[in-house]
C-alpha cells in the first residue's frame, strides 16, 4: 500500500486534474498530479488511470504509455492511507473497494498490450511500486528512493509485492519486504526493480526525444533505443551487492525472531554496523506485520502473479480488523506520537499459530 503519507492534500477534494492525460506523438502520458501529497494515489485516481489505460489499449493511434509523477519529489509515495483509515473508522467501504480496484489496475499494467515506460523519479513507495513493477521500462534517477515500507505502519507489502519481491535474487526481496528499508538507483538496478538509470537533468531531453521519435515496427524497441542514448542499465558500487552474502544468510532463517536474534550476534566488522542498524529498524516495526510478511513472501515465491494478488486481497480482508494497520496509522499519521502499541508488542510474544491463521482458507489454485 504505502509509506507514511500525510499532508494537507490528503484532505483536499478530489478533482479530475489529480491525473493529467495527454497524447503526444502516439504516446499516452499519464501524470499523477498531487505533488503536495507526494502523488499519493486515491481511489478516484485509480479509476482514472484504469479508464484511460483501457481506452488507450484499443486506440490504434496510441503506441505506448508513459507514467510519471508531478514535481521533483515523488513518482508516488503510496496509497492515500489517511482516507482508508477514515473509511474504516466511519464504517464505510472505501478501504475495501480501494484494494480490489488498485490491484486490478496493477495487474492490468503487468498484462498491458502496449509498452509502458515508468519514470520513477523521487519517492516510489508502496502503491507507487505497484504501478511501476508491471511496466516494461522502469527508469530511476539519482533522486529515486524505492521501498515497500508497509511494515512501518503495521501492514504488509501488497500491490504485487508478494510476487516481485521474492523473485529478486537470493533473499534480497525478503529483506526489503520484512524491514521496509529504502534503496537508491544502484540497488534498484541490481535487484531488478528498475531497468535504466537516467540523470534527472536529462528527463526534459527524454521528453523531447519521445516527442520527436520516428516509430518503426516495434514500439518497445523504439523506446529502448531512446533510453540507450540517454541512460545506462548498471551503476557501480550497489550497496546491496556487498551485503548480499549476509542478507542471503540471515533472511533465509526460519522466522523473524531468529533473524533478529542472529543479527544481534554479528561481530564481523564488515557486517556489524549493518546488522545493528537492521535490528534497530526492525525493532520499530510491527512484529505481526513482519511475521505475516515473511510468510506471505515465501508463499508468493511459488505462486503465479494472479494468485499473489489474490493472496494479498485475502490478507487485506482480515487486516483492518485483526492486524496492526489502524494502530500504526494512528501513531504515525493521526496522533503522530510515534509510539504504536503493536499487538503483540514484541517478537518474543509472537504466536506462530496466530500468524498462520491469516493464511487459512486461502484457496490456492493448482498450476
Helix fraction by DSSP (H/I, runs of at least 4)? 40-55%
> Total number of helical segments?
16
Amino- and carboxy-terminal Cα gap: 27 Å
Q: Quote the CATH topology.
A: 2-enoyl-CoA Hydratase, Chain A, domain 1
Radius of gyration: 20 Å
Detailed description of the structure:
The chain is built from 16 helices and 9 strands. The strands form 2 sheets. Strands 1-2-3-5-7-9 form a 6-stranded mixed β-sheet, sandwiched between helices. The chain has a 3-stranded parallel β-sheet with strand order 4-6-8. It has one domain: Alpha-Beta Complex (2-enoyl-CoA Hydratase, Chain A, domain 1), CATH 3.90.226. With 367 residues, the chain is α/β, with parallel strands linked by helices. The model is unreliable at 3-14 (pLDDT under 50).
Which labels suit this protein?
single chain, 367 residues, alpha/beta, 2-enoyl-CoA Hydratase, Chain A, domain 1, six-stranded mixed beta sheet, three-stranded parallel beta sheet, disordered N terminus
Amino acid at each position: 500500500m504505502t509509506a507514511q503519507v500525510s499532508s494537507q492534500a490528503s484532505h483536499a477534494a478530489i478533482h479530475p486534474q489529480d491525473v493529467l492525460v495527454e497524447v503526444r506523438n502516439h504516446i499516452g502520458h499519464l501524470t499523477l498530479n498531487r505533488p503536495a501529497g507526494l502523488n499519493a494515489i486515491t481511489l478516484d485516481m485509480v479509476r482514472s488511470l484504469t479508464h484511460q489505460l483501457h481506452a488507450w489499449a484499443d486506440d490504434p493511434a496510441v503506441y505506448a504509455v508513459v507514467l510519471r509523477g508531478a514535481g521533483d519529489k515523488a513518482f508516488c509515495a503510496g496509497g492515500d492511507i489517511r482516507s482508508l483509515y477514515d473509511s474504516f473508522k466511519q464504517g464505510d467501504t472505501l478501504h475495501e473497494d480501494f484494494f480490489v480496484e488498485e490491484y486490478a489496475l496493477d495487474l492490468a499494467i503487468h498484462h498491458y498490450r502496449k509498452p509502458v515506460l515508468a519514470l520513477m523519479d523521487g519517492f516510489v513507495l508502496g502503491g507507487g511500486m505497484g504501478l511501476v513493477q508491471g511496466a516494461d521500462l522502469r527508469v530511476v534517477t539519482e533522486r529515486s528512493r524505492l521501498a515497500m515500507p508497509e511494515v512501518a505502519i503495521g501492514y504488509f507489502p501488497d500491490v504485487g509485492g508478494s510476487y516481485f519481491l521474492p523473485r529478486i535474487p537470493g533473499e534480497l526481496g525478503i529483506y526489503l519486504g520484512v524491514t521496509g528499508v529504502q534503496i537508491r538507483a544502484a540497488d534498484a538496478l541490481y535487484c531488478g526493480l528498475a531497468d535504466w538509470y537516467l540523470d534527472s537533468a536529462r528527463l526534459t531531453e527524454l521528453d523531447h526525444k519521445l516527442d520527436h521519435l520516428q516509430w518503426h515496427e516495434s514500439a518497445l524497441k523504439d523506446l529502448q533505443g531512446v533510453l540507450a542514448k540517454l541512460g545506462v542499465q548498471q551503476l557501480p558500487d550497489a550497496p546491496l551487492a556487498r551485503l548480499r552474502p549476509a542478507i542471503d544468510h540471515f533472511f533465509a532463517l526460519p522466522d523473524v525472531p531468529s533473524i533478529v536474534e542472529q543479527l544481534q550476534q554479528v561481530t564481523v566488522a564488515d557486517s556489524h554496523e549493518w546488522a545493528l542498524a537492521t535490528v534497530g529498524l526492525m525493532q520499530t516495526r510491527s512484529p505481526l506485520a513482519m511475521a505475516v510478511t515473511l510468510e506471505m513472501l515465501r508463499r508468493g515465491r511459488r505462486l503465479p502473479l494472479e494468485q499473489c494478488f489474490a493472496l494479498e486481497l485475502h490478507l487485506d480482508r482480515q487486516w483492518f480488523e485483526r492486524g496492526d494497520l489502524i494502530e500504526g496509522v494512528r501513531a504515525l499519521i493521526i496522533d503522530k506520537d510515534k509510539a504504536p502499541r503493536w499487538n503483540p508488542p514484541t517478537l518474543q510474544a509472537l504466536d506462530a499459530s496466530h500468524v498462520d491463521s491469516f493464511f487459512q482458507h486461502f484457496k490456492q489454485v493448482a498450476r
